[in-house]
Amino acid sequence: xxxxxxxxxxxxxxxxxxxxxxxxxxxxxxxxxxxxxxxxxxxxxxxxxxxxxxxxxxxxxxxxxxxxxxxxxxxxxxxxxxxxxxxxxxxxxxxxxxxxxxxxxxxxxxxxxxxxxxxxxxxxxxxxxxxxxxxxxxxxxxxxxxxxxxxxxxxxxxxxxxxxxxxxxxxxxxxxxxxxxxxxxxxxxxxxxxxxxxxxxxxxxxxxxxxxxxxxxxxxxxxxxxxxxxxxxxxxxxxxxxxxxxxxxxxxxxxxxxxxxxxxxxxxxx
Amino acid sequence: xxxxxxxxxxxxxxxxxxxxxxxxxxxxxxxxxxxxxxxxxxxxxxxxxxxxxxxxxxxxxxxxxxxxxxxxxxxxxxxxxxxxxxxxxxxxxxxxxxxxxxxxxxxxxxxxxxxxxxxxxxxxxxxxxxxxxxxxxxxxxxxxxxxxxxxxxxxxxxxxxxxxxxxxxxxxxxxxxxxxxxxxxxxxxxxxxxxxxxxxxxxxxxxxxxxxxxxxxxxxxxxxxxxxxxxxxxxxxxxxxxxxxxxxxxxxxxxxxxxxxxxxxxxxxx
DNA sequence: GATGCACCCTCCCCCCGGGGGAGGGTCCAC
DNA sequence: GTGGACCCTCCCCCGGGGGGAGGGTGCATC
Lengths: 270, 270
Prior knowledge:
Two copies of one chain form a homodimer. The first copy, chain A, is an alpha+beta fold.
């Protein structure tokens, strides 16, 4: 039961509220190694001063910090570094929360019994040369990338001569990462930093407008997709968004207007 | 590419932003069955009106609703029932958030370089007969159970003659569920509903006080545990909490005082 | 010193909700 | 009729555990 201040795994479990199983796993993962392991029997013995470490692990796991990150946090001797790593993860939790919020908003709209009919327009868009920033981006990073790119674009371009927009590769949604491009129409597009001129090809676009914050924009995408299929069209390229009214125009998200345009071609006679 | 308004899995994937793999999995799980499955080739074909269902699933999964629950939500034809099931899950997310908040509070305290010394007292507690409610409870349900039990207890007992408290089986923390008892000291404890008299045995308690909300009470538990071990004692029974100052006394969580008492016996000469 | 029994060990399989990749068949536009 | 994009099934992998089998240990009690 006792061995001079050294704790068997069961006692340590009681004191830390970590299950015996979990303690063994943390040993295997070299995350929390017993103070003593009896070579003959394999019995693990912990010391009381390992309790704080166990508690830190426990809390970090409650925050869904991966074991590998937990290890890095514990291994970093400097409290400042630790705090930074933890803050990083809290940041991740924060954006997780954003995702949750927008999922809730989408659900609310999806589960509404009545769906307002969609106002869809088929529009021929000519080619245009614009100032753009583009990159291959992971879906999770799109928002952050977008914020940085638009800031740089605005700094370089100044006042655009038309409606700003973006192109989003279908692969972004299919496989979680893809090519993304944001642009500002401007006369004589400059080349500076990441900004460079790009000629957007002429396309036939199926266009609809999404009103409000982007939380539930996925719903509008789906409705537009249904319309595309119902009208015997097929998707032919990255989706285009144009930001008719956005955060740069009004602080009221309810007033935002985003046009969603899907390049299409006809697959069957009308 | 097209078959009269019917979509191959890849097209459906593009339209719903669900990966092909995931769509196949949802088929296997009978969650979202293709409108047509070609018997000869196994090719799955979806119809455009399955897009809303796919979107609902997508959003529910973003909220970490288990697939089985997603199925129940989709299968329930009544919008009211659906909404209730979704609300249930949002409630779960809410309590998850509470857990996260308290984990963050604990971490903040744990990662502080300086730990204030613990004020621990060894106290002989005589046996006492109290009015109690007890049950076997899962760790996740403790808070809800506690709220119900104390409400019933207060309704039956009225004003207690001493400090209210609770006993928490160590198994609750070790294996996720265990025996829990809440009590009010009172003269001539009544028997009504779940309330019944219980005689708490006399014990030798190691006692310390936790000040503030219970978010980071686990940290105090750990410190007390260290003290127990450092003083050559061993745990001998369910931990006791007494609520010296609680939410019934003041709305300010910072003023709450909870005594934590661990029954102990001496395992080595002093 | 034996015995009972709580405790501890390792090992293997299971859960969830996917992703990676192999190996092979199908669709359809040119 | 052929190339290439698309689709199929099957198996293994991940993380962070839980359940349980089968067997060894520690120690208080007799």
